[in-house]
Amino acid sequence: AQSVAQPEDQVNVAEGNPLTVKCTYSVSGNPYLFWYVQYPNRGLQFLLKYITGDNLVKGSYGFEAEFNKSQTSFHLKKPSALVSDSALYFCAVRDIKGYSTLTFGKGTMLLVSP
Amino acid sequence: NAGVTQTPKFRVLKTGQSMTLLCAQDMNHEYMYWYRQDPGMGLRLIHYSVGEGTTAKGEVPDGYNVSRLKKQNFLLGLESAAPSQTSVYFCASSYRDGNYEQYFGPGTRLTVT
Predict the structure, then answer these.
(1) Rounded alpha-carbon distances, angstroms, from residue B38 to A87, B72, B89
(2) I need a labelling partner for B104 at 20 to 30 A (CA). Which of A88, B34, B63, B73 fits?
(3) Using beta carbons and an 8 Å cutoff, which residues of A are at the interface with B?
(4) Checking DSSP bridges between strand B73-78 and strand B87-94, what pairing results, if any?
């Protein structure tokens, strides 16, 4: 089975401060990992993905994520948060061993205060 | 290039009524998906399709049927709506399988009374 956990329902950060949104996963094979963002009343938008290679992945809007195999984590980070980053963030995983679809986490609401 | 479009945007049904949600994509993607989003539950996969004429069950398929007669369209049907099907429904498509990013439609908000 494949699963993903986002342990925080909400993350609060002040504008200009660094932000981290946590994600851990469970797969039996090797993972493909994704981050998506959802703004109010919109569909999800792709931010970045890890398939193979460099453990640090850079994506849209200045976001990056670090794949850590030993800790089975794929935390989303940004050095300096913007108020416009406030949104719902989803981590998703695919186990390349036998799965062709993604499993999404429950989502983390990021609130950036001015 | 419209991407992924969904119709309708909103719908209110009475228990037992039926309806079909339409998803269309103009990116020539092979894979298409239907998800439902409920508070605190994240996105859950209902059904998906790996190509024209194919469909497969996802995590929560009960009460739903799908069809993919044309590559660009993926229909989600509710034969007899129940209040538990009140949700926001998202369609998505991807070039191929799960290592390609998915492109999402704007969603359909369905209320079953």
Answers:
(1) 16, 26, 9
(2) B63
(3) 9, 32, 34, 36, 41-46, 49, 51, 90, 94, 96, 99-107
(4) unpaired
Q: Which residues contact A63 (CB under 8 A, 6 or more apart)?
A: A35, A47, A48, A76, A77, A78
State the smallest CA–CA distance between residue A82 and chain B in angstroms: 24
Contact yes or no for B43 and A99 at CB 8 A: no
Distance from CA of A68 to the nearest CA of B (A): 18
Tell me the CA distances in angstroms from B74 to A61, B37, B97, B104, B106, one per residue in order. 31, 18, 16, 13, 15
Quick one: pLDDT at residue A98? 67
Chain B nearest-CA distance from A16, in A, is 28
Q: pLDDT digits over B37-90, tens only?
A: 998 889 999 999 999 999 999 999 999 999 999 999 999 999 999 999 999 999
What digits encode the pLDDT tens for the residues B1-37? 789 999 999 999 999 999 999 999 999 999 999 999 9
Residue B29 CA to residue B49 CA, distance in Å, equals: 11
Residue B93's DSSP bridge partners are B32, B103
Hey, what are A89's tokens? 């963030």
Q: Name the nearest CA neighbour of B83 among B7, B14, B2.
A: B14
Mark yes or no for CB contact B42/A94 under 8 Å: no
8 Å CB contact of A102 and B106: no
